[in-house]
Write the structure tokens for this entry.
Amino acid sequence: MSTFLGSVTLATAATGVNATSFLSTMAEVTATMVAIVGGFLLSRLIAAGTERRVLRREIEEEGVRRRRVAAEAHVLRQHLLQEDANAWLEDAIDLVVNEWGQVAIADVLVEFPSERDEEELRPFFDEAV
């Protein structure tokens, strides 16, 4: 190490440059480069963290939207079932009234077929009978 410093001293003596000033400048340049690279990396980390938070928020919002749409779809399916059952019962009302309490839902479905199955229509049928 003393050889390096000795050669720097000899080289600086020949050129008139102070070795301490040279080494100090090299240290400052190195620190500046490290700061620039570190700042760049830090800014990328901050940007990635921000992007991650944005994506998490979007995922949460999408989950809320999906739950809302699922709830709305359930309400619409129930409404459609109610409408279908009412239409089916309107068609079958004469049979149900004439056979009050003695007709089974299966018999009504044979006479008045529906796109809905027996289990879907049973609550409406039971309420009507």
Notes: Residues 19-98 form the longest helix (80 residues).
